[in-house]
Amino acid sequence: MRETRVNTGDTERTPARLLLRFLARHPRSVGTLAAVGITGCYVGFHTMLLGAGVAVAAGASWRLLDRPTFDRFAGRLVRAWWRRWFVYQRKWADIAFGCGLTSSNRHGHSLVPKLLSVRSTFCWDSLRLRLVRGQAAEDFEQVLDRLANAYNARRATLRTIKPGVISLDVQKREPFDTLFIPLPEMPREDSAVDLARLPLGRDEYGRDFALDLVGGIHYLIAGATGAGKGSWMWGLLRGLAPWIRSGRVRLWVLDPKGGMEFGQGAELFHRFATDDQSGLELTREYVDTLDERKTEMGRHGRRTWTPGHSADYPLDLLIVDELAAMSEYTDRDISREFTKLLSKALTQYRAVGGRVVAATQEPTKDVIPMRGLFPTTVALRLEEASYVDMALGEGVRDRGAFADQIPDYMPGVAYVKTEGSREPLRVRAAYTSDDDITELVRYATSHDAEILDFPNRDNGTETESADSPDTGGESGETDDIEHIEVIDDGEDEDDDEDFDAA
Ligand SMILES: Nc1ncnc2c1ncn2[C@@H]1O[C@H](COP(=O)(O)OP(=O)(O)O)[C@@H](O)[C@H]1O
Ligand SMILES: [Mg+2]
Fold this sequence. Notes:
Helix content: 40-55%
Radius of gyration: 28 Å
Distance between the termini: 73 Å
Strand content: 15-25%
Bound molecules: adenosine-5'-diphosphate, magnesium ion
Structural class: alpha/beta
């Protein structure tokens, strides 16, 4: 009953019936037109035209001033409506016929899948379609390329909404094809670091995109091998460079795949573990340290920790490169304890300066049972469509986060979902090359940093620079010279001068 029939020649399909049916099926479009008509009759068409003119002008200036919010609240609705009627619906019957997606019933009537609705995001449009009887989603699967071509789209993908209803998703735009993403300048002053805005790259609208360790709190970064997780994590560290140097942020880095990702930065880290056993010890120590701080702050009646404001407590950032190696592909005992400790870190240290950034290739429940505890989630290119909702949350792929469709020649592109915002944002991180990492390491380990003296800092395996007391620039006191010799060769000292001059 529900299929649209074409050329039926049915005697009961009189124009009046068709009109009535149309009215009943599209209450919103018809209602809007009726409202406009009635208003016109009451206030006169001149007034209404004037009103419409004002509305259009207001919308246009809104769009000009702040495209992303315009798009989020108004643009996508207008675009979806426009495209539905003037792009997709107009050509649909022909395209369905051309792609072999029509069929006929025993009376010889042609049946065309019905276009139910269109949703639009900045890059993707989703066409909801009702299959005709006898058709399956696979029939569409086979002609996805043809459908994409027919609508001048870059690619198309399919998902099943419910039995008999599918969504054909077509990518209309790829801003990152042409958008060059400059690597944000590495800050050189403590005061230049804003924890709530650590610049990383650009979003799909071409705006600067920054990580937010204040409101965003903990980050989960999911991405297949080669998807660009490294750029995200190193980009974050570059944004923190002066704080790493002065000890305002301490890095606890767990790179259980033998230090492949973070080996280059070992000097920067307060603690560094490259296998699962030492990783567990590192996590234990991290939790103990923050537990202690929590108790201590409670004793002193301090309830919150202000990032970077006071030198009393540093920001303690726990970075885990491959969660699966700690939570799944290891001994049961290690994984069980690690999972417990990480869940604690994610839930209890927000107010005392504990932050977690963790990466994973598979965001499945087995690998990250605590994935719901990350307020901000990032999905780079993923292997499976089902991984997207696992990483970003239920239903986020439906809202346009097609992370599984990010092509592999676009590493660094991701969808970001923050707590409290419904819509995912498409983002690309700037590329952090080995040279950029070297620059960071040189800068952050240079000896003339102003070192804050933290009461609870212990010695041991800390990086040398974090350990050295305040040298006050070129004061060159004797007890520092050893450090200088250990860390910096002559070449590095030259570079440090460059940095200071810059
Ligand atoms: N933001 C980016 N922009 C451009 N290319 C990138 C970006 N991030 C990574 N790449 C490229 O992709 C490759 C794989 O990135 P990597 O960070 O090692 O992936 P992962 O850690 O997710 O396996 C890098 O060697 C680099 O050439
Ligand atoms: Mg990596």
